[in-house]
UniProtKB/TrEMBL annotation:
The keyword Isomerase does not apply. This is Trk system potassium uptake protein. K(+) binds at residues 110-111, 218, 312-313, 429-430. It is a multi-pass membrane protein. GO terms for molecular function: metal ion binding; potassium:chloride symporter activity. Its main location: membrane. Low-affinity potassium transport system. Interacts with Trk system potassium uptake protein TrkA. Belongs to the TrkH potassium transport family.
C-alpha cells in the first residue's frame, strides 16, 4: 500500500527548498527597487505554509519507500513544485495562470519554450527566477536520473545503475553522499561558465543567468534575441558548456575523485561526442558551400545550433529553418536524439540509439547463423532481456505520446507543422519548434490555452521519461 505520510514529508522538504529559492529573486527585486518584491514574498509565504503542513502531517512516519511510492513521489514532486513555483508569475502584471504554469513547467523541465517577450526590459527578479527554475530542474533531473530511474528500470536506464541507485535504508547514506557530490560539481561548473561568459563581454547579471540556463541545458535568456544579442566569444562559451551539460555529470564527479580522464572512455560519451562533431562539421560545410559564409563563422553557427538542439537547450542564435531543406531535416532529427544519460538534457538519449544498433547488428548475425547464441553487450555489459523490454516500451510510448499530443494540438486549431514540431519539442524538452509561430524566431504566447496546458503535460512526460508517469495510469498500480 502507498505510504502517504512519508510522501507528504518529502514533498514538504521540496517545497521548503522552493521557499528558500524564492527569496533570491525577492532580494533582487528589493535591490533594484522593483514592484515584484511583494509577489515573491507572498509566494514564499504560501509555499512555506504548504511545506510546513506537509512536513507536520508526515513527521515521525519513517522514510520507508517502496517502488510504488517512488513512482508516485517522482511525478508528484515535479507537478506540485511547478504549481507553487508559478505563483510569482501570476502575481506579475499581465501574466495569467495558464501562461505562468506553462513558463514554470518549461523552466523546471529545462525545456526552454517561452510565452514571454520584452525580456530586455523585464524586471531582474523575474529573469533570475526563470533562470533559477531551470538551474533547479537541471540538478533535480540529474539526481533522479542517477539515483531513481535506474532503480525503477525506466526506459532501459538500469544499465546505469550504480551502488547509489538503491533506495533501501542500507544505501541511503551513499545516495545522499552521491547527491552532494553531484551538487558540488554542478555548482562548480556553473561558476566556471559564469566566469567564461563574463569574460566574453556579458555583464555580471547576464552572465549568471546564462550560466544557470546553459549548464542546465534550459535555454532561457535575458534577451528576446537570445544568444544573438551577445559576442561570438559568448557563442563558443555557450557551445562548450552546453556540451558539458549534455555529458553525464557523474563522470565529472568520478574524474575529480579519481583524478583521471580514463572515466571518459565510455561508449555513450564517445558516441555522443563523435556524433556532435560529425553533424556540426557536416552542417558547417553545407553553410560554407551553399550560403557562402566564412568557414569559421559557418563552424560557429553550425556547432552552436547543433549542440543547442541535440542537448535540448534550445538557445536561439540564427533561424536555422532558413538554411534549407537539408538543415530542416537534420534539426528535426536532432530534436529526437538528446545527449547522454545522467545529463541535464532531454530527448531519447544517445545510449538508446546505440543499444538499438547493437541489437540490430546481433539480429542480422542471427539471420546468417540461426543456431548461434549471441550475447548483446553495451559498454562491456550484457544487455539483459528486461532492459530490452524497457527500452522498446519507452520508445513506443515516446512515439505514441508525440502522436497523441500532435492530434490534440491540431484539434485546437494549430497548423500541422506547429502541432507536430510543438509536440516533439515539448516531449523532447528542446524548446523551439519549427515554423513561423514556435520556430527559433517565435514563441508560444499566441497558442490557445488548451494547447499550452497540453504542451506543459508533454514537457512533464518527457522530463520524467514517460514510463514514470504512464505507470500511474495502470489500474494495478492502485490495487493494494
Amino acid at each position: 500500500m502507498l505510504n502517504y505520510r512519508p510522501l507528504l514529508f518529502i514533498l514538504g522538504i521540496f517545497l521548503s527548498t522552493l521557499t528558500v529559492f524564492m527569496l533570491i529573486p525577492g532580494a533582487f527585486a528589493l535591490y533594484y527597487g522593483e514592484e515584484t518584491v511583494a509577489a515573491f514574498m507572498i509566494s514564499s509565504l504560501v509555499a512555506g505554509s504548504a511545506a510546513s503542513f506537509c512536513m507536520h502531517q508526515g513527521q515521525n512516519s519513517g522514510l520507508h519507500l517502496n517502488i510504488r511510492d517512488m513512482f508516485l513521489l517522482t511525478s508528484l514532486t515535479w507537478l506540485i513544485v511547478s504549481l507553487f513555483a508559478a505563483m510569482p508569475f501570476t502575481l506579475y502584471h499581465g501574466i495569467n495562470y495558464t501562461d505562468a504554469f506553462f513558463e514554470t513547467m518549461s523552466g523546471i523541465t529545462t525545456t526552454g519554450s517561452t510565452v514571454l517577450s520584452g525580456l530586455d526590459t523585464m524586471d531582474h527578479s523575474i529573469l533570475i527566477w526563470r533562470s533559477l527554475l531551470q538551474w533547479m530542474g537541471g540538478i533535480g533531473f540529474i539526481v533522479m536520473a542517477v539515483a531513481v530511474l535506474p532503480f525503477l528500470n525506466v526506459g532501459g536506464m538500469r544499465l546505469f545503475r550504480t551502488e547509489s541507485s538503491d533506495w533501501s535504508d542500507k544505501t541511503t547514506p551513499r545516495t545522499q553522499h552521491m547527491a552532494k557530490n553531484l551538487f558540488i560539481v554542478y555548482c562548480l561548473l556553473t561558476f566556471l561558465c559564469f566566469l567564461a561568459y563574463h569574460n566574453s563581454g556579458m555583464n555580471w547579471f547576464e552572465a549568471i543567468n546564462h550560466a544557470m540556463t546553459t549548464l542546465s541545458t534550459g535555454g532561457y535568456s535575458t534577451s528576446d534575441k537570445s544568444m544573438a544579442a551577445f559576442s561570438n566569444e559568448a557563442h563558443w562559451v555557450g557551445t562548450t558548456f552546453m556540451l558539458a551539460g549534455g555529458l553525464p555529470l557523474l563522470m565529472f564527479v568520478y574524474m575529480v575523485q579519481q583524478r583521471s580522464v580514463k572515466v571518459w572512455n565510455d561508449a555513450q560519451v564517445k558516441g555522443f561526442l563523435k556524433f556532435v562533431i560529425f553533424v556540426s562539421c557536416s552542417l558547417a560545410l553545407w553553410l560554407w558551400s551553399s550560403r557562402e559564409i566564412d568557414p569559421l563563422d559557418a563552424l560557429r553557427l553550425a556547432s552552436f545550433n547543433v549542440v543547442s538542439v541535440v542537448t535540448t537547450t534550445g538557445y536561439g542564435l540564427t533561424d536555422y529553418t532558413a538554411w534549407g531543406a537539408l538543415a530542416n531535416i537534420a534539426f528535426l532529427f536532432l530534436m529526437f536524439v538528446g545527449s547522454c544519460s545522467g545529463s541535464t538534457s532531454g530527448g531519447i538519449k544517445i545510449f538508446r540509439f546505440q543499444i538499438a544498433g547493437v541489437i540490430m547488428r546481433e539480429q542480422l548475425k542471427q539471420q546468417f547463423h540461426p543456431n548461434g547464441v549471441f550475447k548483446e553487450r553495451y559498454n562491456k555489459r550484457v544487455i539483459k532481456e528486461d532492459i530490452v523490454r524497457s527500452l522498446v516500451t519507452f520508445i513506443l510510448l515516446f512515439v505514441m505520446v508525440i502522436v497523441l499530443l500532435s492530434i490534440v494540438l491540431v484539434l485546437t486549431g494549430l497548423d500541422p507543422v506547429t502541432s507536430f514540431t510543438g509536440a516533439i519539442t515539448a516531449v523532447t524538452n528542446v524548446g523551439p519548434g519549427l515554423g513561423g509561430t514556435i520556430g527559433p524566431a517565435g514563441n508560444f504566447s499566441t497558442l490557445p490555452d488548451v494547447a499550452k496546458w497540453a504542451l506543459a503535460i508533454g514537457m512533464l512526460l518527457g522530463r520524467l521519461e514517460i514510463l514514470t508517469v504512464a505507470v500511474l495510469f495502470h489500474p494495478s498500480f492502485w490495487k493494494y
